[in-house]
From TrEMBL:
Name of the protein in its database record: ATP-binding protein
Family that this chain belongs to: Belongs to the AAA ATPase family.
Keyword annotations: ATP-binding, Nucleotide-binding
Molecular function in Gene Ontology: ATP binding; ATP hydrolysis activity
A Pfam entry, by short name: AAA
Top-rank lineage group of the source organism: Bacteria
CDD domains documented for this protein: RecA-like_protease (cd19481)
Residues in AAA+ ATPase domain copies: 585-721
Matching PANTHER family: AAA-FAMILY ATPASE
Keyword match Nucleotide-binding: yes
């Protein structure tokens, strides 16, 4: 945890600008004054005087605190600079610390990939507190030392705090933040595609949107209807944003909703399909199809996606766990109930019913404003109100705005269609530049925008916002509530760029307005895969080779008891899934035992028996070079296994990825990987996908990973006994005779005579052969015999037979490794006793009893 050690006693109440309190914004770093050591937190949400802060040095835990209990960290630094006092023992403000250390003090990552946005956020906080950041080297490199200089703002008279003003003037707008995640990603869309999806809603290209439903019938009912309702509403609203050619009315957008048969009939239309609904791939069309990925997706699904002329967005609702709470919160905001959009209130609401309520609330608010227009005119008549081509929605917003301003400031003059003029030019005349919808001398300018015919978004930013903004004057953008559905992140970005001198206002219940909290818009990384990855995952069928074929249990030598257990507990239930459909069972299988005993081979044999496609993943396949990559790679591999039936994953050396989070030396990023693995194991379990884990150290795994319901079947894999060892050695000897030189090997009876005394000796010494030890011994014996039987001057080694004698094999076995130690066996037996039935644990214990 980061504390501000060494801070002066005066920091009990940090202040700046002569005593005023700096406004706290989302993304600001604050000091928690009421907690021991003054820890820091980063504000992630603000609801009135209640803040939600993320504690970077406490595993990013979230905590709700009062505004009065925190102060901006930037204010503390400004206070220290004003008094020329020491700030802390770990951070110098006068040239002894680097920019990376400054960023770290504010709770942001400061490694070699330090984000420029993090540094910019810190600099902006310090500037608002009256400080100027100056790198001493002139470069903004992370290693550059810095000094903090005072700006003139610290010498200005104190200004009232916005929070105090809110308390004194309740008519000021309530502040609210867009729910995170935003509604597309809350309904299953990948966050990397969210911005692309919002932009596509305003484009003319046809959109194909697929919703993959979960198995739960209750969840599917509200999900599908809510998804279709919000998607259709957002699309129709967004399509009005783009100005049509010639300035006329744009063609009405079309929304197609239908069953999965729409996908099946798109590439292969039938006579019957021509009479029903069809996918529309013409301009300004949105196609919505809900399906179950495993049961409803067409066989040529990839071909359909590749031939669709517009963008395709896939919503994976099988991973949704929030029960629609973010969507419900947004719908409350759209309908004007921003102050009620709290988690406690939203939890009991139906998202589907909120879609209907929100649409009615928007229409009712517009009508209510026009009904009260007469009272507004009676109190303060205007010379001009309506612009040249304003719609009913714009007039309703202006009427509501006039009513709201009039109630707050009844003595102020309202100037509608205000024309702003520049200073006189060289000819002595003034030049008219632009107009604003409403200008109030003490409050600034208000621009009412319905977002109809104003696009594209880049044009809207320039022409409607920044070209009409006057330096030093407050500027407020007023938009209808439904604009939040498709332009919410863009509007929050506009609020961010307007800063303290502007706001984005949304209609609230009654005659009020709510202020959208700023949040910068960041373009996420593309989901486009690397070409090499695309080639490796090509759907083109390749010629199958022997090395590509999956082994079956009959191909695994030895391990008779283990194979019988696999047949009984794994293969039989999977082949009779219909019989066990209503039986709760975990799909996770965990092989544990000493190293080199065939756990990975047996896992692949399960895939061969069930004829499933399998991925054998090592720990490096689930790790990445940067923070956060591990969670992404885990999710990517599980995305592969859940997208189709007949697929399974084998997580080799699972203890390297899912070790216990109680380990004090464990990095927070490793804990995040374990958390992601837990989520994905549950997701795969709901779809009954087989996930096999292998580990040498079962006790090192996190308790949540191996609890019942995730890995429900435990398969102990011990070192081979004498009979199994004979089978394994015989298998490797017979493999030497395939397609190579003539090889003569000992018989099974001779192998038993060679191995029997060695196994008796190892049981006395408690040192045991693993399956890989036996393979190494066979290879070593063959090398020796081949070198002996093949003369040095023989060019064609294939002509000379190789006689692998029992004496050479005995020597190789006796001189070779015995990988399984007494300590490994004791640990293996303890784990078997804990996780397996008593009868099996007792049988394993007798297997390794030392003999006299």
């Amino acid at each position: 945890m980061l504390f501000l050690e060494g801070m002066p006693a005066a920091h009990a109440h940090l202040s700046t600008r002569g005593g005023s309190v700096m406004k706290v914004l989302i993304g600001d770093t604050v000091v928690l004054k009421q907690q021991a050591g003054n820890p820091i937190g980063i504000v992630t949400r603000r609801n009135g005087n209640t803040l939600t802060v993320r504690l970077p040095w406490q595993d990013n835990a979230l905590e709700r605190v009062s505004r009065s209990d925190v102060e901006p960290l930037a204010v503390g630094m400004a206070d220290a600079r004003m008094r020329q006092a020491k700030f802390s023992n770990s951070l110098s403000l006068a040239g002894q610390s680097s920019l990376a250390e400054l960023v770290k003090a504010f709770g942001y990552a400061s490694d070699v990939k330090m984000q420029r946005s993090s540094l910019g956020n810190v600099v902006r906080q310090l500037e608002r507190a009256g400080l100027e950041v100056k790198p001493t080297t002139g470069s903004w490199d992370r290693y550059a030392p810095f000094v903090l200089g005072l700006k003139n703002a610290l010498l200005e008279p104190p200004e009232p705090d916005d929070d105090e003003a809110d308390e004194e003037a309740p008519g000021l707008p309530f502040s609210f933040a867009l729910p995170q995640p935003f509604w597309p990603s809350a309904l299953g869309l990948s966050q990397e595609r969210e911005v692309a999806f919002l932009r596509a809603l305003t484009a003319p290209e046809p959109i194909l949107a697929l919703l993959y439903l979960p198995d739960s019938r209750g969840a599917a009912d509200w999900l599908q209807a809510t998804w279709e309702g919000v998607m259709g509403w957002a699309y129709r609203s967004a399509q009005r944003f783009i100005r049509s050619p010639g300035g006329g009315e744009p063609p009405a957008p079309e929304v197609v909703r239908g069953p999965p048969t729409l996908l099946h009939g798109y590439l292969r239309p039938s006579v019957l399909a021509s009479e029903g609904p069809r996918l529309q791939d013409g301009p300004r069309t949105l196609n919505l199809v809900a399906l179950r990925r495993d049961a409803d997706a067409p066989v040529d699904h990839q071909r359909l996606l590749s031939t669709w002329p517009g963008p395709v967005f896939e919503f994976d609702a099988t991973a949704i766990s929030s029960e629609g709470t973010p969507v419900s919160r947004l719908l409350l905001m759209v309908g004007g109930k921003h102050e009620k959009a709290t988690d406690d209130f939203v939890a009991d609401l139906s998202p589907l019913k909120l879609v209907l309520w929100s649409r009615e609330a928007c229409a009712h608010g517009a009508a209510q404003a026009m009904n009260s227009w007469g009272e507004t005119l009676k109190r303060a008549p205007f010379s001009r109100f309506k612009g040249s081509n304003e719609s009913a929605t714009a007039l309703s917003l202006k009427a509501r705005l006039a009513q709201w301003v009039g109630l707050r400031h009844p003595n102020l003059e309202l100037e509608f269609e205000h024309r702003r003029e520049e200073v006189p030019d060289e000819d002595g005349s003034t030049q008219e530049v632009t107009r604003t919808d409403l200008h109030v001398e003490a409050l600034g300018s208000f621009e009412v925008e319905t977002l109809v015919g104003s696009g594209p978004m880049e044009t809207f930013y320039h022409r409607k916002i920044f070209s009409r903004r006057k330096a030093g004057e407050s500027f407020s953008l007023v938009v209808p509530g439904e604009a939040l559905l498709w332009a919410g992140p863009f509007l929050a970005d506009i609020a961010h760029h307007l800063g303290d001198e502007g706001a984005v206002l949304i209609p609230a219940a009654g005659t009020a307005f709510a202020r959208l909290e700023p949040r910068p818009l960041t373009e996420n990384a593309s989901e486009v895969k690397d070409p090499q990855e695309a080639r490796r995952e090509s759907t083109i069928e390749l010629v199958e080779r022997d090395v590509d074929r999956l082994p079956k249990l009959e191909d695994v030598a030895g391990y008779t008891a283990v194979k019988q257990r696999i047949q009984r507990d794994i293969i039989w239930p999977e082949r009779r899934s219909a019989l066990l459909r209503n039986v709760s069972r975990a799909s996770g299988i965990l092989f544990f035992g000493p190293p080199g005993c065939g756990k990975s081979l047996l896992a692949r044999a399960i895939a061969g028996e069930l004829e499933q496609e399998v991925r054998l993943l090592s720990p490096s396949d689930l790790r990445g070079p940067y923070l956060g990559w591990g969670s992404l790679m885990i999710r990517e591999q599980f995305d592969w296994v859940v997208e189709q039936e007949k697929r399974m994953l084998v997580l080799d050396e699972l203890d390297a990825v899912a070790r216990s989070r109680r380990n004090g030396q464990m990095h927070s990023d490793e804990k995040a990987d374990v958390n992601e693995l837990l989520v994905q194991l549950d997701r795969a379990g709901r779809l009954r996908r087989i996930i096999v884990g292998t580990t040498n150290f079962l006790g090192a795994l996190d308790e949540a990973v191996i609890r019942s319901g995730r890995f429900g079947r435990y398969v102990p894999v011990p070192p081979p006994d004498l009979k199994e060892a004979v089978e394994i050695v015989s298998y490797y000897l017979k493999r030497l005779k395939r397609g190579g030189p003539r090889v003569f090997v000992p018989s099974d009876a001779e192998l038993n005579d060679v191995l029997a005394p060695l196994f008796l000796e190892k049981r006395k010494g408690q040192r045991f052969f693993s399956g890989s030890d036996l393979e190494v011994a066979v290879t070593e014996a063959y090398w020796r015999c081949a070198q002996r039987d093949t003369p040095v001057d023989t060019l064609d080694a294939g002509e000379a037979p190789v006689h692998l004698t029992r004496d050479e094999l005995a020597a190789a076995l006796k001189g070779g490794p015995r990988s399984v130690s007494e300590h490994s066996i004791r640990r293996f037996l303890r784990e078997a006793q804990r996780h397996c039935d008593a009868e099996l644990a007792e049988a394993l214990a007798q297997r390794f009893e030392a003999t006299e």
